[in-house]
């Protein structure tokens, strides 16, 4: 195994002796495309509602194959054989198992896990495979992803069923010494023996699919020899001495066939056996040439994309196992992506450095004329069509479906966010991402079997490294999100497969000066005098990164467990790039630590407000070097913010514009705050104001009886007809003093609902009005905010009556009068602060409003005793 994981057997020798009968995993689990920490990140980001995770998850969760009600294709006549009837069933069921496995982990709803198990059990009896082209068996990898996730995160899959499913994948049995040639010849095999040699006779994408199934299967089976078989072949290495050989060569070819202007074609007549482990088109350097050109680029663009993408899918699996396939031959996979997207994107868009479509040619030196490793094709020219077609429908170059394929997130997460390469290196990949985002929003599902899909959920990262809780007895990192319920050990800083310097940490000396624990990394770790490990040799300018999940919006106390030599060292907590503590001196003497064996707890900061979600925490060190050692640190919840509730239901009194009848058509105003969003007017839960005439004001209002901090307003329209009557609405919020705190006009109508993110303004009444024809009908209006009434002080009232703003509207200057000794904050209509708050000293302060875009703003004037908010209009 060419893994970068250093076996840390020494540290664990004692432990290993105690559990000698237990066989430790050879590979990381779960560890195909998603480690446990990756699944943890998905779940936490979805729960926190953070983009793009939230929207991508919405797309996944609404997919038919992600439902626990998915109907499995059960037919005993064909679930034991992989053939031209069952392959589509099996692959679709496999995708459903994969999506349900993700849904299980994210939602915790075991019905999703049980659905995946139903699928595994349906197909665990496959004993024949008549799909003789290896490619077909290369397309089943998603069910293996599902099996890996379920096996390692859910305890309801029976051991005997797991074993049967594993046995099925390698039927009639795995061997690293003997090939079951008779069984292969009679098709009495399942998948491993269909993919184990790749496909030496065809274009590279087909054998690459085989390698993908092999690598996923190897990880699920915890089979290091099988894993290395795929990993070594892709890199062009010879087979392991304890494994069967790779296909021999060279191919025997003659008889030039017709071909076309893009490629020459030859017949194939078997293979010589003169060169063992010959290396066919699956080998990365045989598939992506030194200029980035794909072996299949003279065939068509779709297949080349699939092949390059498949290489990167395996690169992600390998990375999760500690191997740097992404970096093979100086990031060759990225070079392949760049070539592909430059050629295809420049067809549909113009860029400053590529204003016309890029045409790489042999003559220009940008295209390579080369015979592929199967000997069947010789590339002559890059092909914008499908094979030798010249019809319009076979034009592939720059197709939207190709440019929106879900390849971007995973590769940008690696090359951009993990490695931090110069942006020039992934320029075309990022341009492709921008193109896709403009077309479809977040990354979608794409071709069902060939891409991982939904990358904004699965692969988007917050930090270069991955959180770990330690290492197992084989020295493999134990990936797990830092969840803040217990202290985080300083020595368990984020893991990075390559050198973590300037990625997950910065350490001034390349050796681990403490000599313990993570001995192949630069951070200085030693055995702490109180037990466990601590970080030592802490110097100014060094830092350590930990990926953490903040579980709730709320206040937290930040503390460290440390021992100090003197009082001259400082620590700072930085979260997602924001300094949240400032530099804090680590205390020494008195009741604090008095020496490097005197371990104490110290609070670094108290009641720091944090928002929930997965974040990168950096501990940064300054001051004197070697002033203290750090054992662990804690971020403890003091008090979670109260959850917003629907204030309209709890406290609201509704009214509306009426004539003589308070409930026109039976639609009393309070029906829009009865807690029922059913929009069917006949259901008796929809309000209806008087119609009035076109141009007259119609309104509906809820009075919350007190001032509250309003976060969001959801407006539900009626359904089943007349929806367009609720058009062109003005939504206003007024406080108890009658001030309009928020006002915005919305064209169009909710279909069926709108969510207005108010962002926390203090108000008592919400008014919805319009002047278009017909009355206002509302299925429901939800006003979400914290259930904590806010009394506007008398001072507010004084300020309200004394502070004057003029001219209003204004184009350049605004006079703020009688607001001396106040702090003024300026918010836009969405409640976002648009200027740095400033102090007003004089009685008449002049504000230059040319720094604001034209629009409506609110000035909050706070004199320390009370505050008032006033609206201005910048013309
Ligand atoms: Ca060091
Ligand atoms: Ca150090
Ligand atoms: Ca520790
Ligand atoms: Ca209602």
Automatic annotation (TrEMBL):
SUPFAM superfamilies reported for this sequence: Chondroitin AC/alginate lyase, Galactose-binding domain-like
The entry's keywords: Calcium, Disulfide bond, Lectin, Lyase, Metal-binding, Signal
GO terms for biological process, alphabetical: regulation of cellular defense response
CC terms in the record's Gene Ontology section: periplasmic space
Family matches, as InterPro entries: Alginate_lyase_dom, BG_Antigen-Binding_Lectin, CBM6, Cellulose-bd_IV, Chondroitin_lyas, FTP1, Galactose-bd-like_sf, Secre_tail
Role of this protein: Acts as a defensive agent. Recognizes blood group fucosylated oligosaccharides including A, B, H and Lewis B-type antigens. Does not recognize Lewis A antigen and has low affinity for monovalent haptens.
Entry protein name: Carbohydrate-binding protein
């Amino acid at each position: 195994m060419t893994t970068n994981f250093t076996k840390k057997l020494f540290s664990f020798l004692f432990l290993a002796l105690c559990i000698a009968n237990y066989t430790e995993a050879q590979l990381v689990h779960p560890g195909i495309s998603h480690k446990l920490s990756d699944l943890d990140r998905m779940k936490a980001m979805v729960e926190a509602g953070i983009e793009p995770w939230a929207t991508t998850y919405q797309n996944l969760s609404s997919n038919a194959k992600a439902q626990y009600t998915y109907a499995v294709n059960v037919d005993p006549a064909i679930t034991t054989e992989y053939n031209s009837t069952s392959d589509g069933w099996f692959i679709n069921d496999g995708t459903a198992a994969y999506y349900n496995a993700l849904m299980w982990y994210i939602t915790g709803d075991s019905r999703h896990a049980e659905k995946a198990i139903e699928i595994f059990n349906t197909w665990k009896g496959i004993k024949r495979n008549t799909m003789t082209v290896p490619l077909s068996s290369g397309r089943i990898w998603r069910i293996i992803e599902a099996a890996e996730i379920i096996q390692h995160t859910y305890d309801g899959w029976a051991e005997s069923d797991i074993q049967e499913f594993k046995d099925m994948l390698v039927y009639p049995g795995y061997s690293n010494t003997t090939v079951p040639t008779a069984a292969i010849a009679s098709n009495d095999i399942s998948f491993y023996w269909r993919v184990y040699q790749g496909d030496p006779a065809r274009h590279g994408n087909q054998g690459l699919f085989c390698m993908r199934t092999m690598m996923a299967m190897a990880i699920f089976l915890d089979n290091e020899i099988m894993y290395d078989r795929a990993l070594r072949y892709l890199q062009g290495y010879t087979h392991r001495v304890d494994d069967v050989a790779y296909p021999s060569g060279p191919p025997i070819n003659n008889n030039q066939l017709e071909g076309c202007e893009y490629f020459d074609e030859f017949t194939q007549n078997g293979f010589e056996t003169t060169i063992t482990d010959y290396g066919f088109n699956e080998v990365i350097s045989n598939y992506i040439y030194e200029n980035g050109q794909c072996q299949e680029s003279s065939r068509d663009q779709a297949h080349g994309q699939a092949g390059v993408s498949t290489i990167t899918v395996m690169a992600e699996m390998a990375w999760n196992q500690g191997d740097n396939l992404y970096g093979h031959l100086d990031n060759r996979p990225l070079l392949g992506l760049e070539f592909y997207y430059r050629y295809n994107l420049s067809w549909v868009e113009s860029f400053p450095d590529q204003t016309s479509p890029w045409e790489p040619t042999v003559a220009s030196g940008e295209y390579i004329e080369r015979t592929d490793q199967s000997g069947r094709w010789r590339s002559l020219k890059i092909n914008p069509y499908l094979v030798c077609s010249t019809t319009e429908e076979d034009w592939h170059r720059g197709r939207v479906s190709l440019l929106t394929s879900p390849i971007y997130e995973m590769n940008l997460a690696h090359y951009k966010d993990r490695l931090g390469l110069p942006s020039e290196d992934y320029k075309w990949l990022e341009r492709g991402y921008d193109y896709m985002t403009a077309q479809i929003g977040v990354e979608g599902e794409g071709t069902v079997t060939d891409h991982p899909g939904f990358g904004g959920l699965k692969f988007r990262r917050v930090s270069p490294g991955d959180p770990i809780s330690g290492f197992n007895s084989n020295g493999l990192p134990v990936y797990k999100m830092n969840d803040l319920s217990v202290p985080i050990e300083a020595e368990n800083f984020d893991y990075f497969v390559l050198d973590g310097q300037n990625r997950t940490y910065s350490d001034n000396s390349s050796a681990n000066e403490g000599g313990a624990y993570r001995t192949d990394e630069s951070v200085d770790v030693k055995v702490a005098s109180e037990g466990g490990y601590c970080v030592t040799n802490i110097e100014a300018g060094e830092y350590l990164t930990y990926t953490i999940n903040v579980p709730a919006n709320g206040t937290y106390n930040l503390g460290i467990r440390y021992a100090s030599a003197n009082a001259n060292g400082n620590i700072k907590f930085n979260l997602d790039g924001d300094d949240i503590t400032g530099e804090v001196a680590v205390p020494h003497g008195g009741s604090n630590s008095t020496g490097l064996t005197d371990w104490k707890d110290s609070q670094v900061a108290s009641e720091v407000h944090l928002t929930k979600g997965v974040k990168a925490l950096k501990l940064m060190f300054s001051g004197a070097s070697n002033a203290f050692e750090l054992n662990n640190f804690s971020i403890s919840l003091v008090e979670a913010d109260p959850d917003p509730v629907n204030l309209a239901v709890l406290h609201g009194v509704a009214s509306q514009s009426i004539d003589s009848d308070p409930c026109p058509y039976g639609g009393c105003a309070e029906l829009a705050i009865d807690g029922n969003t059913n929009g069917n007017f006949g259901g008796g839960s929809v309000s209806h104001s008087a119609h009035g005439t076109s141009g007259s004001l119609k309104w509906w209002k809820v009075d919350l009886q007190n001032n509250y901090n309003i976060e969001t307003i959801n407006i539900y329209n009626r359904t089943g007809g007349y929806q367009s009557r609720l058009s062109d609405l003005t939504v206003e919020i007024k406080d108890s003093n009658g001030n309009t705190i928020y006002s915005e006009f919305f064209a169009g109508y909710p279909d069926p609902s709108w969510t207005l993110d108010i962002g926390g303004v203090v108000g008592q009444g919400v008014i919805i009005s319009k002047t278009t024809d017909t009355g206002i009908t509302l299925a429901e209006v939800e006003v979400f905010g914290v259930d904590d009434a806010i009394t506007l002080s008398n001072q507010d009232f004084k300020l309200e009556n004394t502070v004057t703003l003029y001219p209003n509207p204004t184009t350049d200057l605004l006079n703020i009068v009688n607001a001396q000794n106040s702090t003024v904050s300026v918010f836009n209509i969405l409640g976002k602060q648009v200027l740095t708050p400033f102090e007003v000293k004089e009685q008449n302060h002049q504000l230059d409003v040319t720094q604001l875009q034209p629009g409506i703003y609110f000035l909050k004037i706070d004199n320390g005793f009370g505050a008032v908010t006033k609206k201005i209009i910048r013309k």
